[in-house]
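Job type: complex structure
Entries:
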Amino acid sequence: MLSKKRFLEALDIIVNMFPEAHGELEWETPFQLLIATILSAQATDKGVNKATPGLFAKYPDPESLAQADVADVEQCIRTIGLYKTKAKNIIKTSQMLVENFNSELPRDKKLLQTLPGVGRKTANVVLGETYGIPGIAVDTHVERISKRLDIVPQKASVLEVEEKLMKLIPEERWVESHHHLIFFGRYHCTARAPKCEECPVLEYCKFGKRNLNG
DNA sequence: ATCCCGAGGG
DNA sequence: CCCTCTGGAT
């Protein structure tokens, strides 16, 4: 298991690899970020960004999306995976925002998660991006990197990964670190063919050393 | 544990 | 072809 000190050293190197790391979903309002993030489940941000302009042109706010026809919303987002479930969820979420939350996003993590399609990861992303509320969203990249660096057991749940990262990283760095880890996972420490042979944190990485030695 | 599910990459 | 993508609900 990698120590806290060693992990923070590796994290600083990762930060320097992608100093400009940021959220890549495109949105104009907190509501649109929420919808885009719901749509991003098991989908690439590029795929989501391709569909959301058309969706938001027709349904820019909770009021309009709350009254939308399911079939039309499905049409708008059909190129994104899991589109049937997502169409239903974003309409219902919009209805709940209008009816229960005065058309505004609840800033409370638990409350936000009462919206259909919004789980822990999505709530963390939205609250961090819009209001700067500290949190670490554990997606497929963050989970993979945490396990490759061996800061959690290979069988750890995403919640256990989140709790471990919150222990290792100072709270004021949670939101930015999340983005750095994502960029590292998306563009370097990829799932399929990770670039271990040219990796600046190889000396910290159990997985990488084993990967190169065979 | 299983289902949902299209696009892009290797 | 097979794997992966800023998961969530049952």
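Summary: Chain A has twelve helices and no strands. The mean pLDDT of chain A is 97.
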